[in-house]
Automatic annotation (TrEMBL):
The species this protein was found in: Streptomyces yanii
Family classification: Belongs to the DSD1 family.
Keyword presence, Lipoprotein: no
UniProt xrefs under Pfam families: Ala_racemase_N, D-ser_dehydrat
Location of the D-serine dehydratase-like domain: 263-368
Name the record gives this protein: DSD1 family PLP-dependent enzyme
Amino acid sequence: MNSAPPLAAATTLADPDTPFAVVDVHKAQSNIERLAGRADQLGVTLRPHVKTAKSLDVAALLHGDVPCPVTVSTLAEAEAFADGGYTDITYAVGIDAHKLPRVIALLRRGVTLRVLLDSREQATFVAEAAHEAGIAVPAQIEIDCDGHRGGLKADAPELVDIGRILHEAGCLDGVLTHAGESYFAYTPEDQRLAARNERDTAVAAAERLRAAGLLVGTLSVGSTPTAHAAEDLTGVTELRAGNYVFFDLVMAGLGVCRVEDLALSVVVSVIGHRPEYGWIITDGGWMAMSRDRGTSVQAQDQGYGLVLDLAGNPIPGLVMTGASQEHGTLTARDDADLPNLPVGTRLRILPNHACATAAQHRGYHVIDSTQSADPAPAIQANWERITGW
């Protein structure tokens, strides 16, 4: 699937074969504590989306090694986290009928696994499957708050009909919305407005269902930008976010975090130079970083990633501006001098999109930036990602 080597015993970031993914546990823990504190202030349950790291080790940081409510994006994730002791899971991708046997199998294991839907067709086959299995399948109705992806408008005529199908089958759990367009909200005020709209839309949908006599227990909202911008979540029961554990350059470009907060990076090696073009060539292409160019629509285009030295210090003006499958191209911008980096020099690249970059690797070498990085950061642990998704 990728060029990442198996995780092996190593002492420092100077040891493993490149490219490989690195997590700074200190920064990840700080990011986790920041949003957990905000959720407490807002009076809602935080349900982290574990699709970013896909790692039981990372998830263990979320709530002091105690399994907490989580969101997943695949049933393989749900199964792996259930195996790891997580029993309160929301599968936040629209359900398909052929996946329901796996859902029911998890429910029979005692896992509360909620599914997501936005049509009468889905509601009907969920209700029928629940009847045949003799077990309720908790379902949330997806609400479209900003036209980003799937879901029903809060005033959609079919909303109440869908709710009634689920209610009569004992399956109606609540409503869920995701402000995906907040990833293009470039000011703090725009992000606050997105968070307010996300909350107002979920509440409006729930009120319509309740006015029809239907029980709505869960009002779930969230995205990483709106989770950090929300000021009032009255009526909401839970907040979802996932990217915040690692953060990335897109989030930094939105001002949701600082570049210094990014917990994920990829270590690459310099393998060549093209001085006639102003290029430094590395062994980390899009198979190591992903093809994501999310910052290209922001005020500062960060190419495929910003370049740090192995200790984590930014190299001024050096950016990964090109990528083929296994080669990365670094260039200088803003009149910066191209640094003299001999073949074999190890560098760290900060990604545009943490979820996409993490998906290119089978695990993480873990460091702690509060510890000495001389001569190279010590590897504190090796964390595996779950497999089979």
